[in-house]
Amino acid sequence: MNKILASLLLIGVIALPVAADARPVTLTTQLKNYGGNGAYLAIYVTDAKGVYKKTLWVSGKKAKYYKHLRDWARGSGLKASAFDGVSGASVGSGRTLKVTVELADALIDAGYEIRVDSAVEDLRDNPADVRAPLTKKGAGKPVAGRGYVKSFTYAM
Predict the structure, then answer these.
(1) What is the pTM of this model?
(2) Alpha carbon distance 122, 131 (integer Å)
(3) Residue 135 Rama label (left phi>0; alpha psi -120 to 50; beta)
(4) Contact, 147 vs 62, CB < 8 A?
(5) Other Cβ atoms closer than 10 A to 6
(6) Distance (Å, rounded) from C-alpha 5 to C-alpha 81?
(7) Are 127 and 52 a contacting pair, CB within 8 Å?
């Protein structure tokens, strides 16, 4: 019994630093009311220089339209590996997208941003519709979008 307990404690001590390296972050994107089809959104992380680092979520199932999410498309190279497993349906006018993703702790308070590109068929594309500094202080504070996004928040 003591060997089992000691083994479990050792596993817990080894796993603890790994668990502390990332955290769940909930991203909430509220769209404005606009006339048109569902919006395609790319939510991604950039470094302090604006260089693409990681895709967090892509809304819209038809990859042929991803090129309209220009900044994200350029940064990700539209490689399927950048959006496999992190995509869903487009988001309708006035609707809210809420997803939870894992973010490395090293990205927080280190000059990184969460950006949202948006596009709607037959309407204007909005690269960097939202730019939200990724900080503990910014968590829960809404950031207004410049295009189809009314507000964006993230919660840790």
Answers:
(1) 0.86
(2) 24
(3) beta
(4) no
(5) 10
(6) 40
(7) no
| 52-59 vs 87-88, strand pairing mode | parallel
Buried b (16+ CB within 10 A) or exposed e, 133-151: ebbeebeeeebebebbbbb
| pLDDT digits 0-9 by tens, 68-112 | 999 999 999 999 999 988 999 999 999 999 999 999 999 999 999
As a dihedral over the C-alpha atoms of residue 136, residue 54, residue 111, residue 132, rounded to 10 degrees, the angle is -60
Is there a contact between 69 and 87 (Cβ–Cβ < 8 Å)? no
DSSP secondary structure letter of residue 72: H
Is-contact 116 40, C-beta < 8 A?
Answer: no
Measured between alpha carbons, how far is 133 from 136 in angstroms, rounded to an integer? 9
